[in-house]
Give the backbone structure.
Amino acid sequence: MASVSRDGGQTWSAAKVLPFNTCAGGSPGLPATSDPWVSIGVDGRVYVTAIGWLPGEYFDSASVVTSVTSSDGGDRWNEPVAVSESRTPTFMHDNTAVDADRDIVGRAWVATTHWSVNGRPAAVSRTDDGGLHWSPLTFASPSFADAPASAPQPVVANGFTYVFYGHGRDGSQLSFARSGDGGQTWSPAALVHEGPESEGELLFPGTETEMSVAADIMHAAADPSTDDLYVVFTARSRVDTAPQAAVWLTASRDGGSSWSPPVAVGEPGEMTWRPTLAVAPGGPAYVSYFRAAAVEIGAAKSARSTEVLVRAFEWAEGDGLSAGPAESIDRFDWRPRANGSLFLGDYHGLVATEQGAVAVFSRSTPSGSRIVSRRAATP
């Protein structure tokens, strides 16, 4: 579904169902939809991608990466267009991300994981006519033997198209490829960060409830005015033998040739996860993330009290990243889903505005999950 705000996230239009599922006008035989992503082009055209799929026993029996566009800011949506289609379990799509070119009108890029028994590389498609037609998928990463190229994300900057992705256990490695010829060829994989692999069940602090943090899904973005690159990610580790998760940020000012030492987004010892990134022109870089709040049983706080925060980062002397204060924008009781585990999705939305940042995310309530938006005034 899609909703539109024209006042910086203070109010939202009634949600409209987009045509990804079969019942909503999408491709035939696809009852489920997942992994939506949105980007806005230099001409104001809105691109939304998602995966329509038919569940199978081991692989999706069918899956289609679909794109819809709007030329009037989301009031009306064009007919859906299939970016890539699989009608057999031979291969399936996992995750989508779309990035509209900031300089070329009508050009946008979609990335997805091409998941098959022969490999799971990051795959990319391009449109040059505002989403009417998309090129065949090309592979921008190797087929890693140990893990898929998870959650690939295109970023246009420095005259190149970059595709960032996680791989290794729990996304312990982050890499990218780039293309300067419109996606015809891609550079070899270049490492952004490599951390230790982590094993063990992740529990919400102070409880015995299992939590899922989508540690293999990072988020990349570029400064619209300087083309500086940023990547935020969740790293699994162990603290006093207990599995832990923490959010980190790294950046590059030379097109990805070198990366700054990762900076912890949360405070030492905090359990933080599911970060999202947005960069204002000329900075700062905003990161929104979730944190396990103080664990107390009582009227004011619950056993799984969860906080959503936004923090701004800017370049300091010596090309390091300097963090501003973290601003809390929401707090709620994270309620387990039907199978007893804690999961709020793989990612959420964040946009940088002149007044700060606006985050859009899922929060749990006594009656289920709801999508909400919150504004952060940082800095």
